[in-house]
Specification:
CATH class of one domain: Mainly Alpha
Shape: globular
Order of helices and strands: HHHHHHHEEEEEEEEHEEHHHHHHHHHHH
CATH superfamily of one domain: Butyryl-CoA Dehydrogenase, subunit A, domain 3
Number of strands: 10
Helix content: 55-70%
Distance between the termini: 30 Å
Radius of gyration: 24 Å
């Protein structure tokens, strides 16, 4: 089977049967979902007050609990006591843990950025030393990249590593900021510059002399997780604890962040479903003027929009999980460099990982905000869970590279791949230009609108690159808008492909709600993309050139919109009846 190239969704068509969806879950996937959700509800949510109060020993207890169930070792090879699950399974775990508030950050630090550097880039000795303990929960990992003065500029790190005179150790000096799990970590993945120049990753044991942590940060949300500054004062790190290659720390950091972004999107999906469930239940129970507020039109629309965005997120996340699994199946990971082979495979979908992270976390932000609004004044009271979800959600758009940083990745990575000959970008641009030359293109149905979205992106990208060339990367306002068009296009297509696959496999009657959600989302979004393109083109050109661009845009966007108000009423009715997210 030919591997689908990362970013290629913008350039051509995808067979719906090639897309993985939640409807494709195996029996094992469903059992894993029940196990993970059972633990979250019975062990984490049930103890949320104690967790938020940082009850001593509770985090360690919970991590050992997830370890006992195999939820810590999903990405760890079996030879190092891991479960070595497929990526869809790790996605199911991440989504389930996403319901658990601050514990999602703790668990993510353990199973993602805190351990994947060793899984992907560690030596056999390093893996044997650390991975079994990570899988069981006996060891707790933390990822120390961010610095007080660096922020998103990871390569601007000031933490320094110097080789000791006897050549046995690197001496680390510096500090890291906002480090998750730092209060109880057994080890840290630390990035420092050897001789102040060579950006390198290290495994640093927490009990090393000269390593200390600051006080717990008083955070807006995720209060149950540990977040501290980590300080290095002449910390001796054995040379065998260098992770991967000297001067190649950026390879470790950026490859790990790709998977971290994807898993964070799955966390956000779980949180969005939780917010919708709380909101639908409250709207059914809360009465105003003798009537449940779920029957009011504006509340219906809020519930419908929350459900639609969640459906799109779910479709994107599991589509990407399927892509990752197809990639993993094509790779030979049997050698000692198997982890690096995996990292390279995941890197193929760096664009999709950033898209998932942005869309997922912004859907979560929307869901918790509307959730508070549906709860009214009670949504502002800490006794109601939605208040905590609202606070917890804010950090998601900052973690794993801010959403702004992730937006810059999408168009620039696409152009870079095209320049290397990895994607037929120019061919796709030439194709839509020839269609424009032939006259108006009437788009029929949702499939036509998805194609219109792709053409809107290609038109805008072509105009942007024509004006700025390689300097486009520095035009952040333009890059942001290009990214937004690409993100929404992936969302539109992912929902559509899932729905078409469902109709093909289960029939239109069983797929009715999916179809309504897909139609509502695509028809509500296409004009937003058209306006974004028009705004961008107006910033790129003027006079006759601008007139021609806008005329071309009109030719690409001839369509008839659906009645989205009626569709959303249908969706809200189903959500209210079930009292939770359902498809």
């Amino acid at each position: 089977m030919t591997i689908i190239k990362g970013g290629s969704f913008l350039l051509g068509q995808t067979d719906p049967q090639r897309v993985f969806t939640p409807e494709d879950f195996t029996l094992e996937h469903k059992m894993l979902l029940r196990t993970a959700m059972g633990f979250v509800k019975d062990k984490v949510i049930a103890q949320m007050d104690d967790l938020e109060a940082k009850k001593e020993g509770l985090i360690e207890e919970l991590l050992k609990g997830t370890g006992d169930l195999g939820l810590n070792g999903s990405d760890i090879p079996e030879e190092f006591d891991g479960m070595e699950m497929d990526k869809v399974s790790t996605t199911i775990i991440s989504e389930s843990i996403g319901w658990s508030g601050s514990f999602a950050m703790t668990h993510g630090g353990q199973t993602g950025i805190g351990s994947m550097p060793i899984v992907m880039f560690g030596t056999r000795e390093q893996k044997a030393k650390y991975l079994p303990g990570i899988a069981s929960g006996d060891l707790i990992g933390a990822y120390a990249l961010t610095e007080p003065g660096a922020g998103s500029d990871a390569l601007g790190a000031k933490t320094r590593a110097d080789l000791s005179p006897d050549g046995k150790y690197y001496i680390l000096n510096g500090s890291k900021q906002f480090i998750t799990n730092s209060g109880m970590a057994s080890f840290f993945i630390v990035y420092a510059k050897i001789d102040g120049q060579k950006f390198t990753a290290f495994i640093v044991d927490a009990n090393s002399g000269g390593l200390s942590t600051g006080a717990e940060e008083h955070k807006m949300g995720i209060k149950g997780s540990s977040t501290r500054q980590v300080i290095f004062e002449d910390v001796k790190v054995p040379v065998e604890n260098v992770l991967y290659k000297i001067g190649k720390g950026h390879v470790v950091a950026f490859n790990v962040l790709n998977l971290g972004r994807y898993k964070l999107a799955a966390n956000a999906l779980g949180a969005s479903k939780y917010a919708l469930e709380l909101s639908a239940t409250y709207a059914n129970e809360r009465k105003q003027f003798g009537t449940p507020i779920a029957s009011f039109g504006m509340i219906k629309e809020k519930l419908a929009n929350m459900a639609i965005k969640t459906y799109v997120t779910e479709s994107m996340v599991y589509r990407t999980g399927g892509l990752l699994d197809e990639m993993m199946e094509s790779l030979d990971t049997s050698g000692d460099d198997g982890g690096q082979v995996v990292a390279k495979g995941i890197e193929e979908y760096a664009i999709e990982c950033s898209i998932n992270k942005i869309f997922g976390t912004e859907t979560q932000a929307y869901a918790v905000d509307e959730g508070v609004q549906i709860h009214g004044g009670y949504g502002f009271i800490s006794e109601y869970t939605i208040e905590r979800l609202y606070r917890d959600a804010r950090i998601f758009r900052i973690f794993e590279g801010t959403n702004e940083i992730n937006r810059t990745i999408i168009p620039t990575a696409l152009l870079k791949r095209a320049e290397k000959g990895e994607l037929p970008l120019q061919e796709a641009i030439d194709k839509f230009k020839s269609q424009i030359a032939e006259g108006n293109i009437v788009r029929q149905g949702e499939e036509g609108l998805v194609q219109a979205a792709k053409d809107i992106f290609l038109l805008t990208l072509d105009a942007s690159h024509k004006k700025y060339g390689d300097g486009l990367r520095d035009q952040q306002e333009v890059v942001q808008r290009l990214a937004d068009i690409a993100i929404q296009t992936f969302g539109m297509e992912s929902a559509l492909l899932r729905t078409l696959k469902s109709i093909e496999n289960e029939g239109e009657t069983k797929s009715k709600l999916k179809l309504s959600m897909t139609k509502a989302y695509i028809n509500s979004t296409i004009d937003v993309l058209k306006y974004t393109a028009k705004e961008t083109l107006t910033a790129l050109a003027e006079g006759e050139e601008l007139t021609q661009y806008l005329a071309d845009l009109e030719k690409l966007t001839q369509y008839n919109l659906q009645n989205t108000v009626a569709l959303k009423r249908e969706i809200a009715a189903v959500i209210s009846e079930n009292g939770k997210y359902t498809v």
